[in-house]
Design brief:
The complex is a heterodimer of chains A (271) and B (96). Chain A has 271 residues and is of the alpha/beta class. In chain A, 41% of the residues lie in helices and 16% in strands. Chain A has one domain: Rossmann fold. Chain B contains 2 helices and 3 strands, in the order ααβββ. The relative contact order of chain B is 0.11.
Chain lengths: 271, 96
């Protein structure tokens, strides 16, 4: 049994890749899967903070690739879910510290260790780190904001996924592409200030696998070092749960894409 | 939204502007995806050569790359200014 490799990528920075990687990995672990989530952003480690394990990083991804530590020593066990592990990025090395062969070896070892899923948290950009994060992927979650530069960059990334991956090079079929729309604000969409779900789907020619509403809970969660999906009361957490279920093959309707209905008095007097 | 909102003039929603701009740029970038990197440079050099003989603008040169099964067609078309030949097209086929 080989692990399924899912890359979380976007091209543009700051759209929610790490937030998504953390919640996706945690959500799959909540569904009982054995999951490893790897930070590919060498030099700018951040996944450890979002996962809340920053003080427990001893060895990192680069150490494993260079044989300076074993995989077992480097995987950080999540404090909430015992079937969830984090592999941190190196904070001191440069981005050339990762090699294709090295990454492949780590991914193969994770398969041998019985992992069901490996989530690769890609750095921004389309350079080496981003290339390595997507190269071995079976599935891709392309994170996009309803904003012009993010949509354009996503289209570029979708093009790279179709050509610059191992699957594409070997003719083993397409990397399954999932589009995840984050920071969605239904109120601004309703008054024509923000691209809608259908706008983004039409422009990119691909359906969304989920829509995560802009939510204050995301910042709260990152402040606390708890992936937002764990906050099951929050809209963002629930939207991530839906997304994970869809990736696992379940059908669920989109939520949080409409403005909550206002009462009669609010409509007359404003507010 | 209040009761007097209909008195305000509504500007064109910016999301519509964003959508149209993205439609155009995404279509344009998709069509040039996978095209060789040398195309813009070749276009400039061709312009220099042509300029020695006729006065043309860079906008007058169009480069199109079309892919069919098994071969690619690189099409260059140069619109010459009035007084000379009306227009001229050069086709070059590269085997693939």
């Amino acid at each position: 049994m080989t692990a399924e490799i899912i890359v979380v990528t976007s091209g543009k920075g700051g759209v929610g890749k790490t937030t998504t990687s953390a919640s996706l990995a945690t959500g799959l672990a909540m569904a009982g899967k054995k999951v490893a989530v790897i930070d590919f952003d060498v030099g700018l480690r951040n996944l450890d903070l979002i996962m809340g394990c920053e003080r427990r990083v001893v060895y990192d991804f680069v150490n494993v690739v260079h044989g300076e530590a074993t995989l077992k020593q480097s995987l950080i066990k999540d404090k909430r879910y015992e079937n969830l592990f984090v592999l941190a990025a190196s904070q001191t090395r440069d981005k050339d510290a990762l090699t294709q062969e090295g990454v492949e070896k780590v991914l193969d070892s994770l398969s041998e260790e019985g992992f069901d899923y490996v989530i690769c948290d890609s750095p921004a950009g389309i350079e080496k780190g981003a290339h390595l994060a997507m190269y071995f992927a079976d599935k891709a979650v392309v994170v996009v904001n309803p904003e012009v530069s993010s949509v354009r960059d996503s289209d570029r990334i979708l093009g790279l996924l179709a050509s610059k991956t191992r699957r594409a090079e070997r003719g083993e079929g397409q990397v399954t592409q999932h589009l995840l729309l984050t920071r969605y604000n239904p109120a601004r969409v309703a008054i024509g200030e923000m691209l809608s779900v259908t706008d983004v789907e039409d422009i990119l020619g691909i359906k969304v696998v989920g829509v995560i509403p802009e939510s204050e809970n995301v910042l709260t969660a990152s402040n606390n070092g708890v992936p937002v999906i764990v906050d099951t009361a929050s809209p963002a957490g629930q939207a991530y749960s839906d997304t994970v279920a869809r990736i696992l093959g379940e059908e669920r309707p989109l939520r949080f894409i409409d403005v909550p209905k206002k009462g009669f008095l609010q409509r007359v007097f404003g507010g | 939204m209040g009761i007097l909102d209909f008195l305000k003039r509504r500007p064109e929603p910016t999301a519509t502007v964003a959508r149209e701009r993205l439609r155009i740029i995404v279509a344009q970038e998709r069509s040039s995806r996978g095209a060789p990197d040398y195309l813009p440079m070749m276009r400039n050099e061709l312009l220099e050569v042509i300029k020695k003989y006729v006065h043309v603008d860079i906008e007058a040169i169009n480069i199109n790359l079309e892919r069919d099964s098994g071969h690619e067609i690189l099409e260059l078309s140069v619109t010459l200014p009035d007084g000379k030949a009306k227009s001229d097209a050069t086709n070059a086929t590269t085997a693939n």
